Hints:
By secondary structure, this protein is an alpha+beta fold. The chain has one domain. The chain is built from 3 helices and 4 strands. It has helices at 2-8, 31-45, 66-76, and strands spanning 11-16, 22-28, 48-53, 59-65. A 4-stranded antiparallel beta sheet has the order 2-1-3-4. Strand 1 (11-16) and strand 2 (22-28) form a beta hairpin. Helix 2 (31-45) packs across helix 3.
Amino acid sequence: MYVLKEVLSVYCIERKDDDSQWRRELCFKTEFKAFVSARTKSMATLGTYRVVNSSWANQVVAEVNGLELVKKNKNRI
């Protein structure tokens, strides 16, 4: 039963639209791949993305704001 539960665990990326609604874009088998993809997309679009675990009643695992990431990187230079 434990193995079956691991297979069903999916991490999805959601994008925050202009109307403040979350729209699901992609899903991955691992949290790491989902986070890297969300971070990459947020920096490319300067938007807000989050990673949710769909098997935990859509619990938010991470949230990334591209505009804040770009500001932090500019301050380092």
